[in-house]
Design goal:
Layout: E1 2-12, E2 20-29, E3 32-38, E4 47-50, E5 55-58, E6 60-62, H1 74-81, H2 91-100, H3 103-119, E7 122-128, H4 135-146, E8 151-157, H5 166-181, E9 187-192, H6 199-211, E10 215-220, H7 228-234, E11 239-242, H8 248-255, E12 260-263, H9 265-270, H10 278-284, E13 288-290, H11 304-314, H12 319-333, E14 354-357, H13 364-367, E15 374-379, E16 382-383
Parallel strand pairs: 1-4, 1-5, 6-7, 7-8, 8-9, 9-10, 10-11, 11-12, 12-13
Antiparallel strand pairs: 1-2, 2-3, 5-14, 14-15, 15-16
Helix pairs in contact: 3-4, 4-5, 5-6, 8-10, 11-12
The chain binds N-(iminomethyl)-L-glutamic acid.
Function: Catalyzes the hydrolytic cleavage of the carbon-nitrogen bond in imidazolone-5-propanoate to yield N-formimidoyl-L-glutamate. It is the third step in the universal histidine degradation pathway.
Binding site for Fe(3+): 64, 66, 219, 293
Main location: cytoplasm
Length: 385
Amino acid sequence: MSVLITGIGELTTNDEELGTLPDAALVLDGDRVVWVGPAPAAPDADERVDVEGRAVLPGWVDSHTHLLFAGDRTEEFGARMAGKPYAAGGIAVTMAATRAATDDELAGNLRRHVAEAVRQGTTYLETKTGYGLTVADELRAAKIAAGHADEVTFLGAHLVPPDTDAASYLDLVCGEMLDAVAPHVRWADVFCETGAFDADASRAVLLAAQRKGLGLRVHGNQLGEGPGVALAVELGAASVDHCTYLAPSDVDALAGSDTVATLLPACDLSTRQPLPDARALLDAGATVALASNCNPGSSYTSSMAYCVTTAVLQMRMSVTEAVRAATWGGARALRRETGDGAVGVLRPGARADVHVLDAPSVTHLAYRPGVALTHAVWRAGRRVR
Ligand code: NIG
């Protein structure tokens, strides 16, 4: 069944040759884009949808979320707004609630959060384990996540659980836990930060995961300058996420590498941290992605539009840069931006992930902050809104 989407006032393709097109059309067939070009030249299709001058872009690619959780941390958020600093230790609160939840409760919670994201234009989403922190709880998180998210990351190295010996826990993560979880995930991650895992421990986790054939991601430089970015670049991680506190050498290292700097502005705002220096990264030539970091502790939002708006209004990114970072950048961070079924891009052969805004241009995402602008969404060719 093919669908012609026509009457597009502004089409952002993220394709180098196609660029941004006025008066454009798209044809979807099954789960793929099969044609992109000027509206008057569009071929026929089984169904025709006229979007009446609205802007169309690839669906958001949210490359960093933590949606395998139970419970709520409203109280911690309230304390933070009253001046208490964010610390890694809050993860243990969600760990306890997650361990106590049934599989059905965890799956239901995940499904609700994914549906919430999709309603707002997210069409490709990564999520992580990391609130189980036993072999059995990390394994069930990975299995549940694999049923509902596009990409799954193993984050056994999120926190050393309370009352646990750090060296024994590290051995567990790099050994039995990794062996159990690896068949169900594509990526491994480590929270490389004071209060979580230091540089040596992080390196051990990443090398063990690499030996298992997993791709690498790193939580780095969230709460202060530290070794996360350098380690991610050295080991060829696909992305290093947060990047809130960067030394000039970190910016240079990222600019000279294939590691994507994934910025999580909603998290920085919710934890009352400064916003990352996106301008320094972009001007140096680093690849930047924007992601929601949706989780119950540091960033409880699934809104990629909010991240884009913040990036433009408060981080000196242009609208074009921010939209690209939240679509193509996320895809690049997940190594899904090229080839058959590419995401974050609209060109023949790409996955049919389409986001129609109730606005004539993507500029309205920043020009009309806080307004829900998602008009229609196709995810892998299926109309989901
Ligand atoms: O990306 N930084 C580590 N992990 C999450 C927060 C998890 C939590 O506080 O529950 C993050 O911000």
